[in-house]
Amino acid sequence: MNELPDEIQRKLAKAARLEWWSLGFLISIIVVMYLVMGSSQAMKTAWIEDTLSLIPPALFLITRRLETKAPTRHYPYGFHRVGSLGFFLSATALSTMGAFLIYSSATALLLREPPTIGNTQIFGHDLWLGWLMIVALAYSVVPPVILGRKKLPLARQTMDKVLHTDAQMNAADWKTGLAGIAGIVGIGMGWWWADAAAAGFIAVDILRDGLRAMRISVSELLDGAPRQLDSPDIHPLVDRIGRNLEQLGWGSGVKVRETGRYVRASLEPETGRAISVDEALKIGAENDAWRLIVVNRTVRMNSSAGSDGKDPPPGGPDQRK
Q1: pTM over 0.90
Q2: What is the tens place of the pLDDT at every residue in 200-248?
Q3: What's the mean pLDDT in 146-153?
Q4: Which stretches does UniProt call biased (Pro residues) (predicted)?
Q5: How many CB atoms lie within 10 A of CB 81?
Q6: Which residues have a Cβ under 8 Å from the Cβ of 79 and sit 6 or more positions away?
């Protein structure tokens, strides 16, 4: 594999430090929210979202260590795609929990379950618990939003989808906090439905983030063409690589797929299956010949590359099967 440039290494190291800060703040937020959430549906939903927010930073730190491991006999291509797996797992967790929370808030609305927020005593004085909930929600917004805005440019520069998902969740946390505060204020004004409605708004936001991330992660796991970081659209790099390699005229099509933050380009015959069963038998595939569908060419680009539709001359680009 190619070593990452020093600049990318520094950005990943900075991102790792931000993720450790995120974990620390999130744990403190989860504890504070748990202590004051009472029976509020909006508070419970916000607390669950904050708990789910632990997944992306933890996955980023884990996958960052694993992706640099050297290839082994069991994993000859290395562990670059562990980031893809982490991205899929975080997207699945978000989508599942978002759907569950929508069901929960809808049930509360249909059953017309009015939440109650009582009082608590602080230094001998009675205080409406809702004020503490509002303070906790405000605290749950500020650190993640600041950290999320710092992570976004790093995610784009390092092409890290797990980091990007985490940064988007953090940067959008103000919506969760605002919805939760609106639900608490609604309860105080006697609007029983405001709490469940706020919880539903938060849940829809969770589900939308999860489904968008899942769509991109599934395409990557299925060897789809590389996608843009925040969109299912194909990355412009694919067309650039394909156009430039095909201009060399080696009689092959170019297939590009994503493997974690990296990209692999293969030169393969353009028509159908790359090799037939008979051809696979000739190179020793024996009874498993039907499983071998392509033998790629790995090329080392230099000035001696051919452009006449034939293989490059001896001493030119490497060809390995």
Answers
A1: no
A2: 887 888 788 888 888 878 877 887 788 877 777 888 888 887 777 777 6
A3: 92
A4: 312-321
A5: 23
A6: 66, 67, 68, 69, 71
Q: For tokens 């980023």, what's the residue?
A: 60
Single-letter amino acid code for the residue at 201? F
C-alpha 45/C-alpha 58 separation (Å) is: 21
d(CA 167, CA 21): 13
CB-count burial class (<10 Å; 0-12, 13-18, 19+) for 158: buried
Q: Which two tokens stand for residue 16?
A: 């790792």
Q: Specify the pLDDT at position 24.
A: 95
234 vs 238: CA distance, rounded Å: 7
Looking at the domain that runs over 6-221, which CATH code has it been given?
Answer: 1.20.1510.10
Q: Residue 44 — φ and ψ, nearest 5°?
A: -65, -40
Q: Which segments of the chain are extended strands (E)?
A: 119-122, 125-128, 253-259, 262-268
Helix (H, G, I), strand (E, B) or coil at 248: coil
- The alpha carbons of the chain give a radius of gyration, in whole angstroms, of 26
H/E segment holding residue 177: helix 173-188
Q: At what angle do helices 161-171 and 192-221 cross, to 10 degrees?
A: 170
User: Is the distance from CB of 226 to CB of 238 less than 8 angstroms?
Assistant: yes
Domain with CATH 1.20.1510.10 in the chain: 6-221
What are the two backbone dihedrals, phi and then psi, of residue 11, each rounded to the nearest 5 degrees? -70, -40
Tokens standing for residue 138 = 């405000």
